[in-house]
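Q: I'm writing up a methods section and want to include an example of the input and output format. Could you take the sequence below and give the corresponding predicted structure tokens, formatted cleanly so I can copy it straight into the document?
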Amino acid sequence: MFSWLSLPANVSMIDILGTSIPNLIYLYGFIVKDILWLRILIIVGMSIETGYHFRDLHSPEWAEIGWCSFYILVNGWQFTMLYKERRNLKFTDEEQAIHNKVFKSMPSTAFKKLLSIASWQELPKDYIIIRQHTHVEQLALISDGLCKVVIDNKEVGFVRNGNFIGEMSFLSGNETTATVTTIDDTRCLVWNKEQLKKLMRTDHEVEISMQSVFSSDLLSKLMVQQIH
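A: Here is the clean output for your methods example:
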């Protein structure tokens, strides 16, 4: 009655589980965003696969066992380095608040790299951060303060804590579409455009995270404009 569940004579349940479970773990590893968890999953999957290749104790599959052991050692080393790097990460209260609010999807190690090429700027009231129809050389993120957005001499909205200034021009390379002026004393985190683009080109983790951050920032600005 259950003949459709029967396995071929040369295939056992151990064969199915020994090959399927590691591959499912590797598949999940491709989904996770945190590279530290990817290393852990590879080590777990390879360990199970190594055990599977010992299923015949009289004739272990030494070539496969050797390669699995090598992958475990490499990923174990990388895991150790990443863990030590993250354990030693320290942020100021302001930096941690920005990470929690704006860059929460970005791993702490990538955020540290982002901070390493940034600088802080204290801007007075009525300071013009960017002018409409110009090319900007910097990308700014408001940490504390409020700015007004003017397009063709018409006030269209505001940007505040956690919002970027000049990101559309940064992404497209086109001229700015608005003038942004501080309403009160404003504190910004600022990146040089070329330095940031270079970091994004050379660090895939930073690039992917920044694209996600820019998308969220744009969406929040659109929602605010629709409300007003």
